[in-house]
Structure formats: C-alpha cells, structure tokens
Design brief:
Layout lengths: L1 H11 L1 H41 L2 E5 L12 E2 L2 H8 L4 E16 L2 E10 L1 H7 L6 E4 L8 E4 H7 L6 E7 L5 E12 L4 H6 E5 H8 L4 E2 L1 E6 L5 H11 L4 E5 H4 L1 H39 L1 H9 L4 H36 L2 E2 H5 L3 H7 L5 E2 L6 H17 L1 H9 L2 H4 L3
Length: 407
C-alpha cells in the first residue's frame, strides 16, 4: 500500500521526477565511465609492467633487496619450491639469477643487468615470442637476448657478439663473449635499456656457481589477491627469506596509480555533490509543496512514521531508477572498450606514444568491466538517498496539521 502511494506521488509530478532521475543518471553515467577507464588503465599498466616480467610477488634471500649482490643470493631446493607451491593462489614459480655487468662492443661500453632465466617456465607467465623484435627466444648455450635499448645503443642486431665483464660469485671474475640471438621489447624502458637475457645455466656458468638464484618470481591466479599470498608465504617460509609484492619492488607504479586515482575521486566527489543537491532540491520542493496534503493525512489518522516511509520510498525509487538506467547503459560501452581499448596516444597527439613508452606504460587503455565499479557507486547513491530523507522526517515530526492546512 505504501509503495503504491509513493509510486503515484512520483508519477503525479512527472516533470520534477524526470529532472531528478536525469541528474542522478547523468552523474552516475559519467562516474562509472570515468572510473572504468581509470581502473582499466591501471590494470593495463600492471599487466604491462608487472605481469610481463616483474611478477606479483618476489622472494629473495634475507637482505638481498637492500644489497643486491651475488653474495646475498640463495640456493633453491625442491623443499623450498614445494613449500611455496603449497600456498593457495600461486599459478607459476620462476627462478632467476640477476647480476650487474659491463657490456662492451667496439669502442662503446655501458652497464647492463644479466638475467638468467628458465625459458620453459618464463613462457608460462608471458609469451615472450610476441615481444621479440627480431631473432628467436629459443636460446642455446652462451647465447643472449638483449633489450631494444641496448640494441639501439650499440647499433647491433642478431648474430653480433657482445663482451660481458663483471664480478662473479664470491669474488670470482666473470667475463665472456656472447652472440646475440635476438632483440626483445618488454615495454619497460629500464628493462629495454639494461636487460640481457640468457639461460639460467649460462648465467650460473658466467658467475662461476652452479646452484645459486637471486629471485623467485611468483605469478598468481587471476583475480587472486597478492597480499593474501604474501601473508600466507610469510607463515610458510623462514626468516631466511624476504617476501615482497610488486607494490614494494615497483613503488613508482603504485604511486602513479594512487595519485591518478585521487584525481578521479575528486572528480567523482564533484559529481556526487551535483547529484546530492539535485536530490535534496527535489525532496525539499516535494516536502514544502505537500504540507497541506501531509496535514490532511495526519488529521485523518495516518501516522507520521508511515508518512515518512512514503517519502523515503519515493526518494529511493527516484534514485534507483537513475542508478539502474546508468548501469544498464554503461555496461555495453565499457564492454566494447574493454575489447577495443582506447589509444591514448591518438587522443594526446603527436609524440605521446613515445612519451608513454619512455614512462613504461602502454598507450592502450581498455575499460574495466568489473561490477565493483557500478555497484559501489550505486551503494553511495543509496546511502545519500537515506541521508537526504532525514530532512522530510524532521519536517513531518514538527508538522502542525492545523497550520499546514491554512491557505
């Protein structure tokens, strides 16, 4: 009965109801699309930088991150691998050996980072063949793949030879000639400028140790929380190991996402202010214009609580119609742009693609299709509806039926 009366009241003043629904719909429509684009862009950054090589969680020997020396490396046995594998949410485990080296060819020399990798395990995380600029990822003994930045610096291509010189394990000297098998573009400026990749066995031979590793990289299952994996690993592994998530190993990415998200929240707040004032204006007019009606209803015996419930339901219905329309109309748009990402370089103009590549970001920005975005903002609108209903509740409680019926 109350719902029926509330619906009739909404339909009775169609123009006012339409204005309120439209304001809620327009604001929520913009908020959902804006946040979907933001979160889709963040997911793409994480996929480009974290999933491509860094990994969601890293394990090192205790103290390695602060002093990245081969002397702080670790030996990985099957028991350690089994302990890590016992944690839920872990999809793949990859060992790596990483060390600094000087790179030389002709009269040019620069620093680089050697990455000893297990090719078959790495392919489970990301398809490296798709990242190859030239050559092949099928590495043989003492063959290397170099980042695109190194290839451009030395102006070399596959089958050329680089001389690597550095410090090995326990003070041993490390040096050797390595033919270039291919050039890779990892969409990460630091890796492209410094990265040299060889098999794990070749890297161990180079540093004169057959057993050590510096990193264990963990790839998580889709939608699984890396923080939970971090907490579970902390319970399983001893204090001889340090565990870090990508937010610690790549703090600049986390800071970029946090700063940009804050800007999005400010814009969402502005739109919420517009919605709230629009809803409050409607409730204000609805309450003041119907004082006579309220006075009559109270005089013939309707309780003030029931009258307040009618106003509350009217407010909720108006807000929910706008919310449902916004969700229904934004989902096809976000789904389309999730499959067909927006090229931010085209929108930003000439030179933007190179600028974003230098920052390590992909210019493609797919929209997120997570239901958390529309539902969370719909919940905010619902809460605002309840808060706005406080005003008519107070007015109804203080209403004098005799005075309100005077014309």
């Amino acid at each position: 009965m109350i719902f029926k009366i509330a619906w009739r009241n909404i339909y009775r003043n169609r123009k006012r109801s339409l204005i309120t629904i439209t304001s809620i719909f327009a604001a929520l429509f913009l908020i959902i699309l804006m946040r979907a684009l933001q979160f889709g862009f963040y997911d793409n950054i994480i996929k480009t930088v974290v999933e491509s090589y860094s990994g969601y969680v890293e394990i090192h020997a205790d103290g390695y991150w602060d002093n990245q020396s081969l002397d702080n490396s670790m030996q990985v046995d099957q028991k350690l691998i089994n302990d890590i594998s016992s944690v839920d949410g872990i999809d793949n485990i990859v060992q790596r050996l990483q060390t600094f080296s000087l790179i030389s060819m002709g009269e040019k020399t620069k620093g680089g980072v050697i990455n000893g990798i297990n090719i078959s395990d790495e392919q489970k995380i990301t398809d490296w063949n798709k990242k190859m600029v030239s050559g092949s990822f099928d590495l043989g003994k003492d063959e290397i793949i170099i980042g695109k930045g190194i290839a451009e610096y030395f102006k070399i291509k596959e089958n050329d030879t680089l001389i690597l010189y550095g410090q090995g394990y326990r003070g041993m000297m490390a040096a050797g000639k390595f033919p270039v098998k291919g050039v890779i573009d990892l969409k990460n400026p630091d890796l492209n400028k410094l990265g040299i990749f060889m098999t794990l066995e070749s890297a161990r031979n180079y540093v004169s140790s057959d057993e050590i590793s510096t990193h264990i990289i963990i790839d998580k299952s889709q939608y699984y929380d890396e923080e939970k994996i971090f907490n579970d690993l902390s319970q399983v592994l001893s204090e001889n190991y340090e565990i870090m998530t990508w937010k610690e190993t790549l703090p600049e990415i986390e800071q970029t996402i946090t700063a940009d998200s804050a800007g999005g929240l400010i814009m969402a707040f502005i739109l919420y202010v517009i919605v709230v004032f629009g809803m409050f204006g409607t409730v204000l007019m609805m309450t003041e214009e119907r004082k006579y009606e309220f006075g009559v209803l109270i005089s013939i015996g309707m309780s003030r609580l029931r009258l307040f419930n009618i106003i509350l339901i009217e407010t909720i219905i108006l807000s929910m119609i706008g919310v449902v329309l916004a969700i229904i109309l934004t989902y096809p748009i976000t789904y389309y742009f999730n499959l067909n990402p927006i090229d931010m370089a085209v929108l930003m103009g000439e030179g933007a693609d190179q600028m974003m590549e230098d920052l390590g970001f992909s210019p493609l920005a797919p929209m997120s299709i997570s239901w958390d975005i529309p539902f969370s903002h719909a919940l905010v609108i619902f809460i605002f509806s309840l808060l706005i209903s406080i005003y008519p509740a107070v007015r109804i409680l203080k209403l004098n039926p005799v005075k309100s019926m005077k014309i």
